[in-house]
Amino acid sequence: TINLGAGPSSLPTSVLLEAAQGILDYDGTGMGLVELSHRSKTFQKLMDKTEADVRALLNVPDTHAVLFLQGGGTEQFSATALNLLAAHAVKNPDYFKSNGNKGPPCDYAVTGSWTAKAVKEAARLGATTNVAIDSRKVDGANGKFGSIPPVSEWKLSPVESKPAMLYYCDNETVDGVEFPNPGFPINDLPEDYRKEVPLVADCSSNILSRPIDVAAHAIVFFGAQKNVGPSGTTVAIVRKDLIVDPDQGVPNGGPRIPTTLVYKNMLDNGSLYNTPPMFAIYASGLVFADLLQNKGGVAGATERSEKKASLIYGLIDNSDGVYLPTVRQASARSRMNVTFRISRAGENKPDEALEEAFVKRCAESNIVQVKGHRSVGGIRTSLYNAVTVEETQKLAEVMTSFMEDVKA
Ligand code: PLP
């Protein structure tokens, strides 16, 4: 079965087989992985290797910690804002009082459903949020996500107001919108802003599919369940000098943070402050090792992602209007989540009956989970790392024959 679901998604078969073995008897211990003590030397060895592989794959510098957390990407919507506000309060003890008992601005680039949720959560927690750009509201958007406006159009908070962060999502899974290249928006930010303001990237659905400049970020986080492994762990790569004891910032207007969300607790305890999601970390570790040893690392994944995405978008663009991309800006079309509608040729309007027929046709070829997110509709084929070029070619064959039938 070719699983093109947006997440949880497929894992390489070799990894599943190895994970199954480890579940039964891990490394000759006579115990399954999930039966070990998380405080055992055996598990510590696994944690160390997993962290080392993340560092090697993503070029994580020593200035940054690699934390294995729970709570999913959603919990990081809260944790990123809370921890960076705490860091701000510790580093700027007089800020809150001199700013009329108001915290620093948190800037957000809202380019899809997940950043919309992230900013809503930060505001709910009491952060002073500033939506620097909302791509639903730019000319021609008609209230829909589907572009990434250039940084020159963003209303960033002034550097003098000492923003606590700028938050963006590198790939919006629901809407199929991805930042056009890995250097954007970093390279386009005003230099003083880039130097002073901590940059946060949600890379849940495109991590390890192309290089990312970790050193330029304060936080890069990703849930495992799309491009890595099963759900259950979220990796947060955090600049160490921004990891503080939040209680020290409370008298300065900083937030109180639930214990398990405090990055410092996780850093000080090697991500084992409390019982970790052992299986999710284990299976993710197998994927990291497989990518590193057998699949050419991130460079290999980048090449395959390009091939897969250009194959499907090429087909969409040459479909005489049968396949309609939902993302208006071609350069912002996601390599990971290819979203489109289906129309009768020449009508230029989504036809739900045709879309239903397409889903069925895919299922007949054992291609599953291609229905679009309910908020966008249509079709979404997710081409994460575990989806091979050959599997993508099968999808292309089905799309081609379906298109010919529609045109006939
Ligand atoms: N961020 C992105 C880009 C996502 O795709 C998702 C989940 O689909 C999330 C955040 C939320 O992750 P979780 O479901 O692990 O909380």
From TrEMBL:
GO terms for cellular component: cytoplasm. It catalyses: 4-(phosphooxy)-L-threonine + 2-oxoglutarate = (R)-3-hydroxy-2-oxo-4-phosphooxybutanoate + L-glutamate; O-phospho-L-serine + 2-oxoglutarate = 3-phosphooxypyruvate + L-glutamate. GO terms for biological process: L-serine biosynthetic process. Its EC number is 2.6.1.52. It is an enzyme of class 2 (transferase). Belongs to the class-V pyridoxal-phosphate-dependent aminotransferase family. SerC subfamily. This is phosphoserine transaminase. It comes from Kalmanozyma brasiliensis (strain GHG001) (Yeast).
